[in-house]
Each structure stands twice: as structure tokens, then as C-alpha cells.
Amino acid sequence: MKKALITGVTGQDGSYLTEILVEKGYEVHGIIRRSSSFNTARIDHLYANKEILNKKMFLHYGDLVDTSNLNRLLEKIEPDEIYNLAAQSHVKVSFEVPDYTAQVDALGTLRFLDAIREVGLKKVKFYQASTSELFGKVQEIPQSEKTPFYPRSPYGVAKLYGYWIIVNYREAYNIFACNGILFNHESPRRGETFVTRKITRAAARIVTGLQKNLLLGNLDAKRDWGFAPEYCEGMWRILQHEKADDFLLATGETHTVREFTEKTFAELGIEIEWRGGAEKEKGLIKKIDLEKAKSLINHSGNYKNYHFEFSSEVKKGDEIVGVDPNYYRPTEVELLIGNPAKAEKELGWKAKTKFEELVRLMIKSDMDKVLRRGY
Length: 375
Ligand code: NAP
Ligand code: F7E
Known about the structure:
- This protein has 375 residues and is of the alpha/beta class.
- It has helices spanning 12-23, 44-47, 67-77, 91-96, 98-119, 154-173, 195-207, 228-240, 257-267, 290-299, 341-347, 355-373; strands at residues 3-7, 27-32, 57-61, 81-84, 125-131, 176-182, 185-186, 214-216, 222-223, 226-227, 247-249, 255-256, 270-275, 282-288, 319-323.
- The protein folds into two domains: 3-182, NAD(P)-binding Rossmann-like Domain (Rossmann fold, 3-Layer(aba) Sandwich), CATH 3.40.50.720; 195-221 and 256-334 and 355-373, UDP-galactose 4-epimerase, domain 1, CATH 3.90.25.10.
- The structure holds NADP nicotinamide-adenine-dinucleotide phosphate and ligand F7E.
């Protein structure tokens, strides 16, 4: 039985990767942080499963800023594969906490690589969660593994250090260390402050009367959005490649935040009309089609005979989207679109879920949560 160690196991990707590796027969060890409130919601279903907890999945307290803790865990677990997913992962927040972001995202990677050397794990394979944010102010369209980097945030710069320290330790010490340069990947488990989930969650709350409107920042930023579980499977494939190397995972399509918003509301039968510009721009309800919303909800199978109605507060002409400049970033990444040709050819990996399907599965999940739990 192979042993994997995952940092960031409580995050979006960590939770999917744990499921994938358990399914493949791995013994999975996850590092969790101490928190003043519960932070294990994404892995609670695994935790509650008696066949999995302490049989196939083991949890350990730790933190990427604690060197002695990492050394002890590596000595105790002796993993075959390490997936370093832990990070202060929010780009906007990294402008507020740049030092901490560097401590975790840059030096955390170094601490881990050094712990591998210290403990003498010669055969271990190491996956580093690198990111399309390395491309920042893009030097080429679309971006590939060969495109020069130009990060635009403390997060991007910290991850750039992580990227290069992986390459350096691979070359200097022959460690099997790989970068996965992953473009944005989303899911129903995406954190609620990232834009996709913020939109689908707000839309579900607006049509049910729990929230009045949705305030966003830059509506015209473009992203290459894929589906997270597919990208986590790609991480595993990267470590199974015969030679340690760096790979880019993306869909090859790009869409604006505005399109994501329009598509989300369209799934609920709401057509948006945009008025005004820049900070004064507003999204108003142009048309409402209740049957469309009903078909989305009933399609999930959970609400076959459920009589869904829009909240009485939702009417034609309502301003349901607005712009709040507080969500702008001091330096923005305007356009990302990846070329995944190398991963497709050498790993046989391909993004299957494209934009429309991604939006649909996320809004369906948030409608389900609102109707089931009323959150
Ligand atoms: P996420 O949901 O924000 O999860 C981050 C994880 O890191 C959480 O488990 C968090 O723990 C943990 N963490 C944060 N600081 C830590 C520290 N000091 N020590 C130990 N653990 C710490 O992120 P994600 O979307 O799953 O992304 C996974 C990784 O891929 C991250 O490194 C991210 O930067 C990178 N990435 C993500 C994307 C994307 O589109 N999702 C794309 C490219 C790269 P808590 O649960 O306790 O907060
Ligand atoms: O922003 C714009 C925002 O925060 C996407 C992380 O997983 O992917 C993620 O980073 C775009 C940006 O993701 C709001 O300005 C508009 O242009 O969802 P996001 P991100 O910054 O792309 C990369 C690959 C990672 O590596 C990161 O870890 O949307 N935007 N209005 C907004 N963004 C947010 N969060 N909130 C808004 O209200």
C-alpha cells in the first residue's frame, strides 16, 4: 500500500485528492491546522466513515511554518508521495498579509524540501501546487510551460519562489519534485470568497430571498475555469510520470467574470441587463422565466415534486448585481488562458468539464444547499 502525505487536506483540492487516493488504494495522511472553530467540513464525510478514518485516512496537526513539526511527520510517516497543497491561497488577501503569504507559500515549500533532505527520504515524490498566477501580466497568449512569468501579487510572487525552489532542488539534489501549474479550478467545495462560488452562492440566496444583491469587483477579468476533481486526478498523474517534470493543466477556454455571472443567473431563468459603466455599473433583471429555474431544480432529482417559487422580492427591473471597488486588486491579472497540450500528450490528461457545465453544477449545488439547509 502506497502512502501519501497531503498538506492542505481540509481545502477544496485536498479533500478531492484524498477521495481519489483512497479510491486508488493509498494510505492517506493529511496535515490539518489547529483552528478555533471546525475547519474539516470538506472531509467530514471521510472522517465519519469507519472504514476510512484511521484505516485509510490519518490526520495530523501541523503547519507549514513549523519546521520541526514537518521533520517529525516525515520521519514518522515516511510517505512515498507528498502533495503540497497548503497555502494562503487568496490573491486579494495576499496584498493584506504579504509576509505571512511568503512564509507559507514560498518558505513553506522550502521547509518541506529541506525536511526531505534532513530525513533522507531518497525515493519520495513531491508535488508542488503551482499556479497560473505565475503568468500574471501575461507575456504570451495562450500560456504554456514555456511562457515567461510575470506575477502580479504577493501570492503570485511567493508561488514563484515555490516554483523555482522545486526546480532547483530537483536539479541540485535529484529529488523527484514536480510543479503542477494549474489554472483556476472550481467546484461546489470552492471557498465562498473566490469569485465563482461567491456568484453561485449569492444567486441561490437572491432568488430565495436570503440576500438582496451581489457586489463584485472587476467584471471583465478573464479566467480559464475548470472542474477541481479532474485537476486533482491530474496532480496524481504528474507524480506517476516516468520523469520529474512540470506540467500545466487548463481547459484552453477563457471567460469573463461578467459571463460567469450572466450564465449563473440564466440557469435560474433570470436574464441580466447591464447599465452604466465602471464603478457605477449595475446588473438589472430584464426577464424572469420561472419554468427554467424549476427545471434546474427538479433536474437534480432531489426536488421532483417541489413547488419552487422565486422570492416575492425578486422582480423585473431589480438591481441584483453591483460593483464595489473594495474588491479591485492593486494590480490585476486581466487574462488567463492555458495551453494544456503537454499534459494531454504526456499524461493523457484532458479537462472534460467545460464552462457551461461547470456553472450549472455549481449553481445546482448551491440551490440544493439553500433549499435543503436554508443557508
Ligand atoms: P484552499 O481551499 O484555500 O485550501 C488551502 C488549504 O491550505 C486549507 O486546507 C488550509 O487550511 C491550508 N493551509 C493554509 N495555510 C496553512 C498553513 N500555514 N499550514 C498548513 N496548512 C495551511 O485552496 P485550494 O483551492 O484547495 O488550492 C490548493 C492549492 O493549490 C493551494 O496551494 C493553491 O494556492 C493552489 N492553487 C489553487 C488553484 C485553484 O484554482 N483552486 C489553482 C492553482 C493553484 P484551513 O482549512 O485550516 O484554512
Ligand atoms: O478571482 C475577479 C478578480 O479570487 C478571479 C486562487 O485559487 O486561482 C485563484 O485566484 C477574478 C479576479 O481567483 C470579485 O479580480 C471580480 O480577476 O476567484 P478569484 P484568482 O484570483 O484567479 C488561482 C489560479 C490561484 O492560484 C489562487 O489560489 O475575479 N473578481 N469580483 C473577484 N474576485 C473575488 N474573489 N471576489 C470578487 O468579488
